[in-house]
Amino acid sequence: MVVDIDRDRFVATMQEQAEIGGTDDGGLHRLAFSDADAEVRDWFAAQLTDAGLDVTIDEFGNMFGYREGRRPDAGTVLLGSHLDSQPNGGIYDGAMGVVAALELVRALNDANIETDHPIEIVNWTNEEGSRYQPGMQGSGVWAGTHDIETEFAKTDTAGAVLEDELERIGYKGTVPATPQREYDSYLELHIEQGPYLEADDVDVGIVTGIVGFTWGAITMHGEADHSGPTPMHHRSDALVAAADVITAIRRIPNSLGRRTVGTTGYIDAKPNSINVIPEEVTFTWGFRDTDPAVIEAARERVLDEAELAAEREGVDVEYEDRMWADPVQFADACTEAVGNAADRLGYDSMRLFSGAGHDATHMADLMDTGMVFARSENGKSHNESEFTSWDDCYRAANTFANAAVDLATV
Amino acid sequence: MVVDIDRDRFVATMQEQAEIGGTDDGGLHRLAFSDADAEVRDWFAAQLTDAGLDVTIDEFGNMFGYREGRRPDAGTVLLGSHLDSQPNGGIYDGAMGVVAALELVRALNDANIETDHPIEIVNWTNEEGSRYQPGMQGSGVWAGTHDIETEFAKTDTAGAVLEDELERIGYKGTVPATPQREYDSYLELHIEQGPYLEADDVDVGIVTGIVGFTWGAITMHGEADHSGPTPMHHRSDALVAAADVITAIRRIPNSLGRRTVGTTGYIDAKPNSINVIPEEVTFTWGFRDTDPAVIEAARERVLDEAELAAEREGVDVEYEDRMWADPVQFADACTEAVGNAADRLGYDSMRLFSGAGHDATHMADLMDTGMVFARSENGKSHNESEFTSWDDCYRAANTFANAAVDLATV
Fold it and tell me: If residue B233 lies in a helix (H) or strand (E), which one and from where to where?
């Protein structure tokens, strides 16, 4: 069976959601728990109801729309992503996965198709983690990875409590934020946020898993001296030692995996005055790969480099691990369903790992999980220049829809 | 003629001033225009009056105490430094130069010595430049290097206007902040703030001049991408390019002069998030040397390195010159007077350049200028661990006093 997403309606629905929290530069500013988030949730709930779905909101604000299957005893196929955005983010990230799931249900309704398994659409709360950390928060609570009371108590930089904000926007539901039925599988459509599909001129991506990562911070403790009279050989410059390691972080991935990445995203220097030798500099590392051994090797390498740099510069070094995530391997049932769907539709596809985390990470602990990637022009995301052509959006959504039907068929 | 500073009274006076704005850790927190600054000024004015000096305060708060000479037509010998301190600075920096000048006058009074030239003690306003920039502000205004109205209008980070603050502490005088008499020479005692006297085990330093410097800022403009899915070869990481140049700034001095120094004291990264490749990084350079050609070579070298680093990383680079100061060469009359004084007193001395700026910089434009350096333990200054033994303080003060008398003798 081949279902066919209504391309015009799909594009129109994408454009409709993009107006809620839309920016003048064609992006989206729709932070979780904001008024724009409330507005898009209201809009989405109306779409679910119009499509004849049974709408529930859980205690953490995750929104579900349930469609009966021919065999209600068969596990439900969960489909979706998130409607929140980064500050001045793009209109595709997350939203396209939710809209594609909605369009699938509309297509099934139009063709009067009843699937074997029930189908449920989900909009996860706060995937982006901009105002409240961590990201993938709603799916993490639902999967039992995060404690709901701990997440409720979190505050933003202005001191606003998450639970209050969720109540304020009217989306603290009554259903427990845990799986309320038997689930068979989870499928998520998302933009790639990387350059591989475009570089290989491939229509859609069959996501085989999600890279794992190590995050941490290194602090160099030097001596704050006057930058004039202190000779070079008398200095213990925390920033020079930090700079040494930052250039090493750029090179470490070269000697490890083919897709290993390493980044310093954050740096803070004290006292940070043009005329004083920096006394204390803190900076971060982040390494990602599909292989946990490579991630661990990168972490060891950066700590070795930090020791060497500190010794060269005569400063003290300390470090702090901040986060570790194992790579996620998706289920064969899902990657095969996606690959078969692309083949049936005549699209070029390739298998690839996701370099970024997604709500699918948490689902993989609970059920068979997979993802479909749409091309991202220049691999850009998390800013207003994020772009995927409607043709590429449509091909990915259609692949997703057909793979989902496949999973929902006994 | 040899004058002899009263060691006990000199030490007691040093301790007295150190109590005004003194910190629990034995340092000094006496920012210009603060209440502590007002208090030390009141104390100092009383000492000048007690010593029989004619006290004047100029419009910019510079404080003078004048002592007649045998030949009032002979140019005045100006002696002093500054009583303001860095935040949590040391008790010697600046203050010792003012106290030594006061002790010289007291010694002359005690011995009923009349000098040929008049002698005048000065406490310059805001040498440190912590709350209002630039440093050496009062001496710069007085020397005509800075426009008084421009400096009056300056605001601190809280928006307080300098002129208001000067009025608030009661030290906006009525005498114009310009030389009001004929001056012969300027002599300043200061701690070295560097390690050379201690390293060579020498009692006092004959300062032959002050290094010049170049200050500027470089900004790297890269691309802010998600740190996960963006492959290493797709990145334009502004922080990696900056780190490259910061390590170069550490090495550039090695290939130039024997005492060239180079520093990055300030860095700012945007968006500064662990999970985003840095888009824009601004950092500073500072190079000092006794030779303007070396300073210019260092500046050219760092700009070349910035171009290369930007090219390697695929980022755009821009730069901004922030300050340039030519090296200052002190007058032979002054260096000879200091050297002779040390010899007469039986102290070991050595000639050296100052690596930091001092009020003497501005005086060198107007009259014969020189400086005496006292040893700084470990070369430390601008923090509470700044230390000079009372023996070393005394030797430097005595050298200063005798050199001053020499300059004041026809």
Answer: none
**Contact A367/A75 with Cβ under 8 angstroms?**
yes
Whole-number percent of chain B with pLDDT over 70: 100
Give the model's pLDDT for residue B47.
Answer: 98
Considering B290, B325, B360, which residue would you say is the last residue of a domain? B325
CA distances from B127 to A227, B35, B77, B123 (A): 16, 16, 20, 9
Going through B59-104 in order, the beta strands assigned E by DSSP cover 63-67, 76-81
Residues of chain B with C-beta less than 8 angstroms from the C-beta of A383 = 224
Same domain, A75 and A187: yes
Domain assignment of residue B198, yes or no = yes
Predicted pLDDT of residue A65: 98
With pLDDT > 70 as the criterion, what percentage of chain A qualifies? 100
The amino acid present at A154, given as its one-letter code, is K
What would you report as the CA-atom Rg of chain A, rounded to the nearest whole angstrom?
23
**A250 and B237: CB-CB below 8 Å?**
yes
Cα separation of A92 and A42, whole Å?
19
Q: Do B379 and A194 touch (CB under 8 A)?
A: no
Q: CB count, 10 Å around CB of B352?
A: 21
How far is the CA of B399 from the CAs of B104, B189, B279, B349, B363, in angstroms?
A: 10, 9, 55, 10, 20
Give the model confidence (pLDDT) of A90-114 as tens digits.
Answer: 999 999 999 999 999 999 999 999 9
Instruction: Answer whether residue A112 is part of any domain.
Output: yes
Are B245 and B131 within one domain? no
The answer to whether A274 contacts B230, with C-beta atoms less than 8 Å apart, is no
Closest to B62 measured CA to CA, from B179, B160, B183: B179
CA distance A57 to A175: 6
Instruction: Pinpoint the alpha helices (H) of A238-357.
Output: 238-251, 292-313, 332-345
CB of A14 within 8 A of CB of A95?
yes
Binary contact (B382, A276; C-beta < 8 A): yes
Q: A194 and B266 in contact by Cβ < 8 A?
A: no
Nearest to B290 by CA among B192, B209, B359: B209
Given an 8 Å threshold on Cβ–Cβ distance, is B242 in contact with A239? no
Of B242, B265, B272, nearest to A266 by CB-CB distance is B272
What is the per-residue pLDDT across A371-394, written as a single tens digit (0 to 9) for each? 999 999 999 888 889 999 999 999
pLDDT (0 to 100) of residue B263? 98
- Inside any domain, residue A269: yes
CA–CA dist B288, B297 (Å, integer): 11
Whether B220 and B363 map to the same domain: the answer is: no
- Looking at residue A294, which CATH number applies to its domain? 3.30.70.360
| Domain extent for A263 | 212-325
Residue among A234, A240, A379 minimizing CB distance to B379: A234
Residues of B in contact with A193 (CB under 8 A): 226, 228-229
Can you state the angle between helices B7-19 and B95-110, rounded to 10 degrees?
A: 140
Q: Does the interface predicted TM-score (ipTM) exceed 0.90?
A: no
Q: Which helix (H) or strand (E) holds A284?
A: strand A280-289
How many distinct structural domains can be found in chain A?
A: 2
Whole-angstrom distance, CA of residue B26 vs CA of residue B388? 13
Q: Cβ contacts (< 8 Å) between A256 and chain B: which residues?
A: none
Interface test with A, best of B85, B192, B232, B252 (most A CBs within 10 A): B232
Beta strand pairing call for B119-123 and B261-263: unpaired
Residue B93 lies in a domain: yes
State the DSSP string of A204-224. Answer: EEEEEEE-EEEEEEEEEE---
